[in-house]
Amino acid sequence: MWYLLAVAVAALQQVNIQERSYFEYITNHRRRRGLMRTCGFGPRMPILYKEDHRPLHRRNAADRQRQRSVLGLPRRPRKAHRGGLSFTETALTGLPENKPDNGMDGYEFVLMMPKQAGSTGISHVSIDWNPKGHIPPGVYDVPHFDVHFYLASTKERMKMTLDEASMKKCQKKPDAKLLPAGYIYAPQGEVKYMGAHWVDVKSPELNGSPFTHTFIYGTYDARVVFLEPMVTRAFLEGKAAVNAPIKQPETYQLAGKYFPTKYMSTRSPSKAS
Question: What does residue 116 show for φ and ψ, rounded to 5 degrees?
Fold first, then answer.
């Protein structure tokens, strides 16, 4: 079975894909509907439209337009707006059950974004598996995945060493308008190679409910450097879906770029593992 974690402006019809991790980009602009456009991640991995088992670049214009009509989508492409990753159900099994020996809370796997993601400002995505969770205790200390959508480059992240100079940059708060109302700087939320974490004080897990999924903002040197959905393994194993709004800042840091308005986790029975 397929699981999908994504940040998106709007949820559109899913596509058939080959069995590998992937990124999917769906055309849209900040507030309007647009045309689906997909791009595979990894070697020889075409993303396939529903009911058409040929890669997009192997179809002629008439074929492409007919497929758009089948999906009920607009006729002209705009800019990519949704990014995510998929994995099979078996990916939730056989994961490390203890923290790594490098002092970090979890294991990181990095996927670089294709050039089509340039309109989002997102450089790359890291999937972090935290077998024992992380701070604060009693809240996020359960096995879960952190999915970081980084606006900072990998080169910039390597400078976030949290030495004295780096820690000062990490603790340098951005203009309040760049973060949604209600988000606060998490105590001890500075993490090496990531930045500072900001949490929503109204999140259910911070108000007595068990942690299932949530959304975090990350900053460094007064800039927003990542957007982070978090979801527990237990929640994914329970096969529930998420389609949650992302609280928006008053001002967007990157002029002319697309900013996600919701995050999603869905399960598709399209292919058994």
Answer: -65, -15
Closest CA to 4 of 200, 269, 210: 269
In a domain, 223, yes or no: yes
- For 62, the token pair is 């008439």
Whole-angstrom CA distances from 139 to 136, 207, 210, 213 are: 6, 10, 7, 11
The DSSP element (H or E) to which 51 belongs, if any, is none
**pLDDT tens, residue order, the chain (273 aa):** 445 565 543 332 222 222 223 333 332 323 222 222 222 222 222 222 233 334 444 444 444 443 333 333 333 445 555 677 777 788 888 899 999 888 888 999 898 888 777 888 899 999 999 999 999 999 999 999 999 999 999 999 999 999 999 999 999 999 999 999 999 999 999 999 999 999 999 999 999 999 999 999 999 999 999 999 999 999 998 888 889 999 999 999 998 888 888 998 888 765 543
Could you tell me the residue range of the domain that residue 180 belongs to? 2-268
Residues 169 and 221 sit within 8 Å (Cβ to Cβ): yes
Q: Please indicate, yes or no, if residue 273 is contained in any of the structural domains.
A: no
**Is residue 57 in some structural domain?**
yes
Question: Domains in the chain: how many in total?
Answer: 1
User: Could you identify the residue written with the tokens 């949530």?
Assistant: 214
